[in-house]
Design a protein that fits this description.
Layout: H1 2-22, H2 26-43, H3 51-56, H4 59-66, H5 72-85
Helix pairs in contact: 2-4, 2-5, 4-5
Length: 94
């Protein structure tokens, strides 16, 4: 009985990211894309910029760049933190 309850809990928890991404406002996704474009262009790496840019990139921020579509609640604060740490002015939100 307890094993079945654990299996149901795991199944429900695995669906939470899919449910939350369906409720993400388009403005948050657009803002996240603006942040990720700034990050990739000036701090992070794009494959065309070579090895030096890959060495400078923060792993959390690289993950945040890829999560802009699915988990803006994670991605936006990470990208904002990284851009502020490098003295960038953040784009307007909204």
């Amino acid at each position: 009985m307890r094993l079945a309850a654990k299996a149901i809990a795991v199944a429900v928890l695995s669906l939470l990211p899919a449910v939350s991404s369906a409720q993400t406002p388009a403005s948050d996704v657009a803002y996240c894309h603006s942040l990720s474009q700034l990050y990739v262009r000036y701090i992070g790496h794009d494959f065309q910029y070579g090895e030096y840019a890959r060495q400078r990139a923060n792993n959390d921020a690289q993950v945040a760049v890829t999560k802009c579509e699915s988990d803006t609640a994670f991605a936006i604060p990470v990208l904002e933190r990284e851009l502020k740490a490098q003295n960038f002015t953040l784009p307007p939100r909204g």
